[in-house]
Amino acid sequence: MFVRDHALPGLGGTARSLPDQRELVAAFTSSQGDPNTDHPLIGWARTLATLHRQRHGNPLAAAGIDCRRAELVAAIDKWVATQVPRRGCTEHLRTGSLGATVDRMAAAHAHASHLLHTAEKVSDDRVHAAWYRLASLADEWTDLIVGAVRKA
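The structure corresponding to this sequence follows.
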């Protein structure tokens, strides 16, 4: 469900579409051209996850990868600033970087997936902690994008 599906009081309509946490997490494992990925944030989320996996696999390329990640975070923040209506009930979206939140989620997903595939036991505490971290960040995303609905 997109946030556009929630009417925001005071806006006389609905918010511009922002993907929910499930859509973002799915994007971290999707490939280019998957259906239902026409939203720019989904594409950027997918690319951020790919960059985090590349960074893990090739630490010597970290500087270039981190520059590209910073560009994507800025692109997400710029998109939100221009596409999400600027009103009192959505002002909280400006206080934190949604781009940085997506980047943290992508990093957490890449780390959790790596641990899941390399741990001796799936029940390893590190695997659980990594997936718990991703779930916490997903909840943070939801709080950021749906908070306007609850505040008004």
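Strands lie at 7-8, 13-14.
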